[in-house]
Design brief:
about 40% helix; alpha+beta; about 675 residues; elongated; four-stranded antiparallel β-sheet; Glycosyltransferase
């Protein structure tokens, strides 16, 4: 190990920069005070005053230290100072949507305007407002800023004065391992540049992140890779996502995208119906594969909760909301896609555990969604209590809405088609087939899209695969091939689906149109087509289960090959962490397949690049891996006898208007404002 003789680091033994230097084959000289550091450093060397106790305590640059350093021609790096030359710096301030920007070409090969994440940043305002070498600002962009710097920003790194021998950092830049700063290559370039600028020469830095992924892009996977991947995720689900209040259990929504200064992410404690149904599916498959009775018991407790009257399930036959399932606990909002994923998960779990106690509510929820769909099988993105103040379900059933959106509607058609196969209720097939035909006339270029065009295409694969399974006409097969081929145009060599926009005028949530717009609404992970991100929340997760199901009914070699590439990609990017076991075994939202790490534009107000969604993302990836191991479809039919027995009577009950107007509910009692 090479000893760095040209510099002294006023830092503790476990400082991240010190640790990275050691991992890179260099042994830094340490000192416990600025004065001792200056005594030990040679003429013309450098002293690094690092903030080991960031953000609780900073450093201090006194006039005496500066005078001593300049007398020896020593350069200084001063981090997170509480005072500089007798002047007290400002109180620590935190950030919300600000990101770190390198505005000029100081950092070697990096482009001007390059963006970094300084997670959980606390900074002490000191330097007067100037772009400097690094600044904090709320900016739009994927890798680089696209609208320039806004008027409001904070200088984070710059020279103290025109002598350029003292660098002041107003935040804890050396906490890059602990704080999980990203992207890795840019932080490596940043520190290598600073070390060189301060006289240490060319140093190649490397370090082991506290949160990483399973494998490199071309790393060979072990034979049991599929089993290991789903087992790790099932263990995570059971260990960290289940909230128990005996005898019921609920499922947390996941982890926030924001990473604090210590590298932690915080649990989103909302209990959502879709996440719970989806988790029940994964837990049931986990039990089926391992025989662990605790997984079955948890699955049953979750289903009991998500179908519990008064909490999620509406059981008042006089209400137009009869049979619908709340988006979240006691929250009467009914997104079609969220009801659908709850239903798909519940139908799968019910079949696996072989218990009919949920059958009536599952079927009634299917029919409640059917009767609030229009003549063509299309449905409003969401209905809520207020939607039934002046309207009955029959108003929605008899209308012809112009709203066509696979994002909100496609998984309802998948649930309808599955239930058609279980019950023979013809309307479930005819309405789904009609709605799908409307989508296929527009796919891909004329589709309205939510977060990306690829997200809309990917959601069509599952219902189309189910349609071919239950009604294998030549036309239905052509539609499935059309959707699969449209999706695979965006598959990159590693197996991921590149996120892409369609016509921006058809997008509900296009990329930010200004710096001010960043972080104010839902948004894509990319700023422009070509940004190398894949979205595991809105695209690749649905493509994964969809391609698996398509491979079972198409029997086309290229479809199976595309699925296997995607499967290996999913296994490779599974999160691995010893320090944070609550993250180990998960999949986050945004993966950059060129940087080969989780990264993206976190413009989405609710779900940024590092968010971990229990239901939408993790359950579907893990379940798809298990389905491959079992060689079977998600569409299970063991419960056919039970559902068929009640189908005719319940269909008549649900689809026949009552003589008296359904009970109206007042907006004052039930208005719940929220967006999906």
């Amino acid at each position: 190990m090479s000893i760095i003789l040209s510099a002294v680091f006023c830092a503790s033994d476990n400082n991240d920069l010190v640790s990275a230097l050691r991992q890179s084959g260099y042994e830094p000289v340490l000192a416990d005070s600025p004065e001792k550091a200056l005594e030990r450093v040679p003429e013309g060397g450098a002293v690094f005053l690092l903030a080991d106790e960031y953000p609780s305590k900073g450093t201090e640059l006194t006039c005496e230290v500066l005078e001593y350093a300049r007398s020896k021609n020593v350069k200084l790096y001063v981090e997170y100072p509480e005072s500089v030359l007798g002047k007290i710096t400002g109180e620590p301030e935190s950030i919300v949507y600000e990101r770190l920007v390198a505005p000029d070409g100081f950092f070697g090969s990096m482009e001007k305007g390059s963006i970094f994440m300084l997670n959980g940043c606390w900074h002490r305002p000191f330097l007067e407002k100037r772009e400097g070498l690094l600044c904090l600002a709320k900016v739009a962009g994927y890798d680089t800023i696209v609208y320039g710097l806004p008027d409001e920003y904070y200088t984070v790194l710059d020279w103290l004065d025109e002598k350029k021998d003292v660098l002041i950092a107003t935040s804890g830049l050396s906490s890059f391992i602990t704080g999980r700063y990203a992207p890795t290559d840019r932080w490596r370039t940043l520190w290598q540049t600073l070390l060189c600028e301060l006289g240490l020469g060319e140093i190649s830095l490397k370090w082991e992140p506290t949160v990483t992924i399973e494998a490199d892009e071309h790393q060979e996977l072990p034979e049991d890779a599929i089993e290991r991947a789903w087992k790790r995720n099932v263990n995570w689900m059971q260990s960290y996502m289940i909230g128990r209040t005996s005898p019921v259990a609920s499922v947390f929504e996941g982890y926030e995208s924001a990473i604090d200064y210590s590298g932690r992410q915080h649990v989103r404690t909302t209990f959502r119906g879709d996440c719970m149904g989806e988790a029940a599916m994964e837990l049931a498959y986990g039990w089926k594969q391992t025989g662990n009775p605790e997984l079955r018991r948890t699955c049953e407790a979750v289903l009991d909760r998500v179908l519990q009257p008064g909490v999620f399930y509406h059981d008042n036959p006089e209400s137009a909301m009869y049979g619908l399932n709340n988006w979240f606990e006691n929250g009467p909002i009914f997104y079609g896609d969220d009801n659908a994923r709850m239903l798909l998960g519940a139908m799968c779990a019910r079949d696996l555990v072989g218990d009919a106690r949920w059958d009536e509510r599952i079927l009634r929820c299917i029919l409640a969604n059917l009767r609030t769909s229009d003549k063509n099988g299309l449905r409003h993105p969401s209905l809520r209590a207020a939607s039934f103040v002046d309207k009955s379900w029959t108003d929605y059933y008899n209308e012809e809405t112009e709203y066509v959106s696979p994002h909100y509607q496609a998984y309802l058609w998948a649930a309808f088609l599955w239930m058609y196969e279980l019950t023979g209720i013809e309307e479930l097939l005819t309405k789904s087939e009609k709605a799908i035909s409307i989508v296929m006339e527009r796919l891909p270029d004329k589709l309205r899209w939510q977060n990306s065009m690829t997200g809309e295409i990917s959601r069509m694969l599952l219902p189309l695969s189910f349609l071919v399974r239950v009604h294998p006409t030549e036309q239905n097969r052509k539609w499935l091939k059309q959707a699969v081929d449209a999706m695979l145009e965006y598959q990159v060599p590693c197996g991921a689906i590149r996120d892409a926009f369609g016509d921006l005028s058809l997008g509900k949530y296009p990329p930010p149109k200004s710096n001010e717009n960043y972080g104010t609404t839902e948004a894509s992970l990319i700023q422009q087509n070509g940004d190398p991100a894949t979205d595991l929340l809105y695209t690749t997760n649905w493509a994964f289960i969809g391609l698996w199901e398509a491979s079972l009914v198409m029997e086309e070699e290229y479809v199976r090959e595309a699925y296997e590439k995607m499967r290996d990609f999913m296994i490779r990017i599974q999160v691995r962490s010893k320090k944070y076991p609550e993250l180990d075994g998960t999949w986050m939202r945004s993966f950059d397949y060129e940087k080969w790490e989780y990264w993206g534009s976190s413009a989405d107000i609710g779900w940024g690049a590092w968010s971990i969604e229990s239901g939408w993302v993790n359950t579907w990836i893990a379940t798809t891996l298990i389905l491959e191991e079992r060689g079977e479809s998600l569409m299970r039919l063991n419960a056919k006898e039970s559902f068929s027995a009640m189908a005719e009577e319940m269909y008549k009950e649900m689809m026949t208007p009552r003589r008296t107007r359904e009970q109206k509910v007042t907006a004052e009692a039930h208005m719940v404002g929220s967006a999906e």
